[in-house]
Amino acid sequence: MASLTANIQTQEERKRSLPAQLVVSLVIAMSLWSKDSMRDVLKNLIDGLSEAWLKVGKYWRVACKSAITQARQRLGARVMCKLFHQLVKPMATQETLGAFLQELRIVVIDGSCFDVPDSDENARVFGRPGSRPGTKAAFPKVRLVILVEAGTHIIFDALMWPYRIGERVRALRLLRSVTPGMLLMWDRGLHSYAMVQATVTKGCDYLGRIPANIKFIAEKPLEDGSYLSWIYPSGKLRKKASQPILVRIIEYTIEHPDNPTEQLTYRLITSLLNIEKFPAELLAREYHQRWEVENTIDELKIHLLGRKTHVRSQKPREVVQEVYAWLLGHWTVRLLMFQAATSAGVAPLRLSFTGTLRVIRRAVPKFQRLNSQDLPLFLSG
């Protein structure tokens, strides 16, 4: 945790028992000990320091719940957001197994929803799903769209917003973090001309699935069974004189996972037009790396938190703070896994996420037995 908080430059007006550096660590640790109370999470954070302090006659009183709440309110959400964007970057190298297709870094964009506590403020800001007349959904919900490096499961950008706003709009904004040298994958729910155009504008290649109701004309059949076609702008973009974009379409069938006698038809759209370097069979096989994002969401919502209501905070600003801390908690685990896998020469995805999480929980108190000056998080008194 110290490596995270060292990047925060917060000026305290006076000495506090819960300085900003400690509160940052505490909010991140909420996801590492997701089923513990806030006071117990704080105790876990300072447990390893107790022995060293007692030897020199110092004592640190564990703050009460209201003091922790006030400290989180002082910290706000912007610090956690900036910390996330400052620290989290794609990590894979060319030697990282499964992270690249040829020279292209595979990244995936997808979205998910999660429950937040049923408070009036959360309901007003984030909204609830639709329900039958005369009833209401049990919890307000928040949408989260993430960009994931497929070979490491590192979430290197994310956006959250109210439930009522669809994923496509925010997915387009998330393209701020794609760069040349990446291969962006998306599912059929995010397919659009605007998505293709924005990705091409960023100089990033793409491989996405096409909805069944979207039709393409085979302008030029290719030797590997794929064909070239054009994707045309929507009505609004056509009025802005947007031009059609040359694309390549790949069609194939796979066995239905629940019914072996049934076939599922997949259609993919891509900017990779070179069939010798990127044959259709290779791209069809690689597209299913997109499902790595589902495993990443599972790590977030099941293994890291494992709570019925994933977020604890009763107020919207603290919800935002907690979500970015949640993402930083996931990054902490995944970064350690990447470093361990690189040292061992194995793929990061071969390591156990839950096993690594248990290692971190055990290691935190041992790490804190370092000299107190090496961990400038606390003020004893």
TrEMBL record:
Pfam families: DDE_Tnp_1, Nterm_IS4. GO terms for biological process: DNA transposition. Signal peptide: none annotated. Residues 7-84 form the Transposase IS4 N-terminal domain. It comes from the Bacteria. Residues 104-324 form the Transposase IS4-like domain. One of its GO terms (molecular function) is DNA binding. PANTHER family: TRANSPOSASE INSG FOR INSERTION SEQUENCE ELEMENT IS4-RELATED. This is Transposase, IS4 family protein. It comes from Nostoc punctiforme (strain ATCC 29133 / PCC 73102).
